[in-house]
């Protein structure tokens, strides 16, 4: 059988010649598979559009997001204000564009903190085992015994109503999920010959975690983190909705939905457009995460 197969366009198939190796992630293979997944490409397009909004907000926003115009308060969508205005005349389109610079980075920061801390802690726990593993996992079980959103509300309320505090609260709640995932990977990887060789040569546990466990456990962790970004954005928006996240006059999608809920029946555009921004962004990250899961899962790779 030939090492590579020709596609219908006459090009070599990277999936046949560059399948992911055990010792890492083959990014060439991932790019190839993503291009063959319409839903994953749609999610990637949504994320790319969001990135353009974040980077180009000063040039794309038609108005200053905090400029008051009481003469045009609660104006319906029109050519002057495509998404209408809020209760003090601020342009909703401009605030949604600037809100992308708050809501999306908060979701990315939450996942980055929880993934980084949880991966290292879980990999160390699985590698060392024994009493250390028992203590770490029992602490994680205690955190997981509470509903995630209730725990986030309690932590955010204890830290104080602020966007940074809400971000830290959500990150703390998400850490146990990555600890359990990384620990499961470490339990399997510590039986590999290269890990046993590193242990026999006296390598420190943290060095083994950094050089052998984490690089080989990245695939499922990346998939989980991509799926979690949408959930983190939703949770941060929910905390802002109940007053524990972003505070006025910060343009944040959840806070905008909260402010517009009293005007839903008569001024439908006020809470609707920020809510759609949350929905579309979360769906984009979920679609990309589903595509990556299909790529990394060997049971789904052949479909």
What features would you describe in this structure?
With 303 residues, the chain is mostly helical. The chain has a single domain (36-296), classed as MetI-like (MetI-like fold, Orthogonal Bundle). Helix content is 68%, strand content 0%. The protein has twelve helices and no strands. α4 (92-128) runs parallel beside α12 (269-296), α10 runs parallel beside α11 and α10 runs antiparallel to α12. The longest helix has 37 residues, at 92-128. The protein is elongated. The protein starts with 13 loop residues before the first helix and ends in a 7-residue tail after the last helix. Residues 1-23 have low confidence and may be disordered.
Q: Write down the overall mean pLDDT.
A: 83
Query: Low-confidence runs (pLDDT<50, min 5 residues)?
Result: 1-23
Question: So what's the CATH class?
Answer: Mainly Alpha
Apparent shape:
elongated
Question: Which fold name is given in CATH as the topology?
Answer: MetI-like fold
Q: Please give the number of β-strands.
A: 0
What kind of sheet is the major sheet?
Answer: none
Distance between the termini: 21 Å
The amount of helix comes to: 55-70%
Roughly how many Å is the radius of gyration?
23 Å
Percent range for β-strand residues: under 5%
Name given to the CATH homologous superfamily:
MetI-like
Total tally of structural domains:
1
- Assembly form of the protein: single chain
Order of helices and strands: HHHHHHHHHHHH
Structural class: mainly alpha
SS element count, helices: 12
CATH architecture term: Orthogonal Bundle
